[in-house]
């Protein structure tokens, strides 16, 4: 089994138009870096210059925001799903 990472529509052009990518289990950081090794432009869209996840991106592991867990050090196991969301603002 693997971890499924759901890719938002706005980022699919950076991952060959895939709506999800399967990765090995690990921390959120390790999984995102694994994707970035295949799709470098994806990494540039996720991480800021300091290596932090950009503020307008929310990552959920099985529906729980990683900010309420262990952040990018949150462990993700076989069968779990990571979902990326882009924050929307406006009035």
Main structural class? alpha+beta
- What is the number of helical segments per DSSP (H or I, 4+ residues)? 2
Strand and helix order: EEEHHEEEE
Question: Superfamily at the CATH H level?
Answer: Beta-grasp domain
The proportion of strand residues reads 25-35%
Helix content: 10-25%
**Main beta-sheet strand count, sense and barrel state:** 5 strands, mixed
CATH topology: Ubiquitin-like (UB roll)
Tell me, what's the shape? globular
CATH architecture heading: Roll
End-to-end separation: 42 Å
* Computed Rg: 12 Å
Low-confidence stretches are none
Number of strands: 7
Give the overall pLDDT as a whole number: 93
Spatial ordering of strands, largest sheet: 2-1-7-4-5
Number of domains: 1
CATH class: Alpha Beta
Description:
The structure is a single chain. This protein is 20% helix and 27% strand. By secondary structure, the protein is of the alpha+beta class. It has one domain (3-86): Ubiquitin-like (UB roll) (Roll), CATH 3.10.20. A hairpin with a 2-residue loop joins strand 4 and strand 5. The protein is globular. The N and C termini lie far apart (42 Å). The mean pLDDT is 93.
